[in-house]
Amino acid sequence: MLDSLPPEILFYIFLKLPSRTLILCTCVSKPWRSLITDPAFLLSHLNQSNTNHHRNRNRLLLLRRCYSTATKKAERYSLHFDSDTLGIYKELKLPHVNWNQSFKLVGSSNGLLCLLGQNIFFWNPSIQRFLALPWPSDIFTVYGSPYKYALGFGFDSRANDFKLVRLVYIEGGPPVYDYELPPRVELYQLSTGSWRQITDSAPCYEILKSQWTQIFMNEAVHWIAFIRSRRGFRCVILRFHMDGEYFSTIPLPDCLVNEFPQNLKVAMLGGELCVLQCGWYPFGNRYVSSVWMLRKYDVVESWTKILSVDPSQGLGMALGCRENGEMLMTSRNGELVSYKPENQIVKGLGIRGAQDSFFLDYTFVESLALLNEGKRIVNEDYEDEDWELES
Questions:
Q1: Which residues have C-beta within 8 Å of that of residue 174, sequence separation ≥ 6?
Q2: Bond before 175 cis per omega within 30 degrees
Q3: Cβ atoms within 10 Å of 54's Cβ, excluding its own
């Protein structure tokens, strides 16, 4: 019966279906597969998913955490409902790629995750497709060595394309950590499957490779960045605009400008840009955990401290703001907890992980990204780690 419907009616029906159901529909007939894999439909379905997310329909939270046993280290990814108990919607299984290692989660955008291991990967857990990226050119062999780099991942809605930017730092001379030269910049586009150099010069700010957390919002990747001086550090938010492919900065609150970079993380809470301050200060023998929010994007005067946690409560980094007004945070013993700022009540959620390994994405949507690229992961309902990749 459905086969007799006009394509424009099928288009509308398919827009209402979740990603996993649409994958099954591609196996029904060639016309259905042709419609679902058409770039125009993929974009419309993504827009529909984002609209539902903003209306809080079937809102899902992506949670990543690491843990270790006596024999190995591992990481887990899962989708949760924003319910009182943070009930689990689905466990996400990382594909087995022939080595026993953990990944660094670079970022998440429009249902696609960027992971860094021995290689760089794009992964869509909703439809279980996985793409290994080629390594960019070895810039350091041309411009100098040694080098380090930082990555930023996001989506260019104007070009309808996923992009990954790499900042490569060339050593400018002594001392070892004095990077006087601006980083060289390379950009990967999913649509072309290749890297190219960006001619726009990047500011001489450094991003800590050990923890370059990022947030993608307003068409830009945001990092905590800094420059070194004889008096310590000067920190800012560095951003790369995916649509125009250029850099800019956002000043931090005055009290955070000279903070240790490792104590700061950029985040998005309640749809607003935030900076998380969390760390132990031995000179004052005190532990600080606070959240600053930029109430009006790009208006420096709108920085506001929205949370300051009593050290006696044993809480660590804030991860997200829930629909009920509570904050999801980590405890210093490695548990995910829900915190009510108005009465300072802390409720454990029974989810544990290694300290500083938690990542929470409130913007995750199930999408069809990578449907026409990469490899399909088969044997999804497996009991061990022996997955297979199929073209």
A1: none
A2: yes
A3: 12
**DSSP character at residue 209:** G
What is the model's pLDDT at position 201?
Answer: 78
**How far apart (Å, rounded) are the C-alpha atoms in residues 23 and 127?**
7
Angstrom distance (rounded) from CA 83 to CA 311: 27
CA gap 103, 195 in Å, rounded: 21
Decide if 191 contacts 159 (C-beta within 8 A): yes
C-alpha distance across the termini of the chain, in Å: 32
pLDDT in tens, 205-242: 989 766 668 999 999 999 999 998 777 899 999 999 99
Identify the bridge partners of residue 108 per DSSP, sorted by sequence position: 113
Give pLDDT tens digits for 329-362.
Answer: 888 888 899 999 888 889 999 888 876 778 888 8
Smallest CA-to-CA distance from 324 within 336, 342, 311 is with 342
User: Cis peptide leading into 7, omega within 30 of 0?
Assistant: no
Q: From CA 121, how far away is CA 317, in angstroms rounded?
A: 27
Vertex 272 angle, CA 266 and 276, to 5°: 30
Contacts of 255 (CB under 8 A, 6+ apart): none
- Specify the pTM: 0.87
Question: Whose CA is closest to 241, among 156, 151, 361, 159?
Answer: 156
Query: Residue 321: which of 354, 360, 370, 289 has the closest Cα?
Result: 360
Residue 83 is encoded by which pair of tokens? 């319910």
The Cβ of residue 224 has, within 10 Å, a number of other Cβ atoms equal to 27
User: What pLDDT band is residue 100 in, cutting at 50, 70 and 90?
Assistant: low
Residue 300, amino acid = V
Using an 8 Å Cβ cutoff, are 162 and 122 in contact?
yes
For residues 140 and 147, is the Cβ–Cβ distance under 8 A? Answer: yes
- CATH superfamily, with its number, for domain 54-361: Kelch-type beta propeller (2.120.10.80)
Give the sign of the dihedral formed by CA 191, CA 193, CA 196, CA 201. positive
Q: Where are the domains of the chain?
A: 54-361
